Amino acid sequence: MSAFDEHKDELEHFEQMYGSARGRLAVALDRMTNALVLAGQHGVYCTSQRNPTLPAMDLRMINQELVHAKELVQSVMEELRNKKPV
């Protein structure tokens, strides 16, 4: 199932609030946030062998990539918001 089908209601809601592009970005941010939560929950059980107080290295890398992706999407949303219509 595509993201457009699976998140149809959420997409319609945010696209109505923010417009098509920013609405889709808002839904993408929500998906990334959910992925971060899931990775964090998994990190509780999948710890580093060197330091059991930390999640495994692959989970830390996934977490960092998702955080960076969120920063990039948020910067695009800010740029679109600050852009004045011609």
Tell me what the structure shows.
The model has no long low-confidence stretch (mean pLDDT 92). α2 (8-18) packs across α3 and α3 (20-45) runs antiparallel to α4. This protein has one domain (3-82). The protein is mainly alpha-helical. The chain is elongated. The chain has helices spanning 3-6, 8-18, 20-45, 57-82. It contains four helices and no strands.
Summarize the structure.
This protein is 78% helix and 0% strand.
The figure for the number of domains is 1
| Secondary-structure element order, N to C | HHHH
Query: What characterizes the major β-sheet?
Result: none
Strand content: under 5%
**Please, what is the average pLDDT?**
92
Going by helix content, strand content and strand pairing, the class is mainly alpha
Record field, number of beta strands: 0
Number of helices: 4
**Helicity range of the residues?**
over 70%
Question: Globular, elongated, flat, extended or rod-shaped: what is the shape?
Answer: elongated
Alpha carbon gyration radius: 16 Å
Uncertain runs are: none
- The end-to-end distance, rounded to whole angstroms, is 37 Å
